[in-house]
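Sequence design from tokenized structure. All designs in this work follow the same two-part layout: the structure record, then the generated sequence. An example of the structure record is given first.
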């Protein structure tokens, strides 16, 4: 299952183009309000490389949130991003903030966790490793509440643990190298906008 496909299911569209692998989604957010932080260095436009047609644009949205607009050569997708800290580590919780018309079949909003390795001079982020997590919960189903959702011939891993349980799990595996994908770096496309 490609990350782009998973993001679309999660309502986050083409944002996945900047990362690799499969994606782990959660029904609950990965943060509490008390964990939120705001980092002005995240604001602005980011690209994978100078020739890239895909852009990540972070804009301030309220006192402690970002509006993330991902644009490629064909379309754009919008998500809300909340930056937060756990044990002095920084993370982004992403979820679709402008869902498409759901019609007769409404979708359940889901959250995606990215570990923010650095915000300058490049933006480096890593997702939870889907393959590692699948193997963990298949061996020990009680390691973290979850379910598998059938998607064609694939099964998507969806975390059903509440925020407190999610945070305990993330903290437990901060130093588990296999738990995190290799970080991907984005370069700043334009000068950072002034903080509002």
């Amino acid at each position: 299952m490609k990350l782009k496909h998973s993001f679309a299911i999660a309502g986050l569209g083409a944002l996945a183009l900047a990362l690799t692998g499969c994606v782990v989604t959660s029904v609950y957010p990965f943060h509490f309000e008390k964990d939120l932080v705001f980092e002005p260095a995240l604001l602005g436009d980011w690209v994978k490389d100078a020739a890239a047609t895909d852009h990540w644009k972070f804009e301030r949205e309220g006192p402690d949130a970002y509006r993330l607009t991902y644009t490629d050569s064909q379309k754009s997708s919008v998500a809300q991003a909340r930056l937060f800290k756990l044990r002095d580590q920084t993370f982004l919780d992403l979820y679709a903030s402008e869902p498409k018309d759901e019609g007769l079949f409404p979708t359940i909003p889901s959250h995606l966790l990215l570990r923010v390795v650095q915000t300058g001079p490049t933006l480096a982020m890593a997702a939870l490793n889907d393959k590692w997590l699948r193997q963990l919960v298949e061996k020990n189903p009680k390691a973290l509440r979850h379910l598998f959702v059938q998607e064609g011939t694939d099964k998507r891993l969806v975390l059903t643990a509440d925020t407190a349980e999610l945070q305990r799990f993330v903290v437990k595996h901060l130093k588990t190298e296999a738990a995190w994908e290799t970080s991907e770096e984005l370069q700043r496309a334009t000068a950072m906008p002034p903080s509002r």
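The radius of gyration is 16 Å. We note this feature because it recurs in several other targets discussed in the main text.
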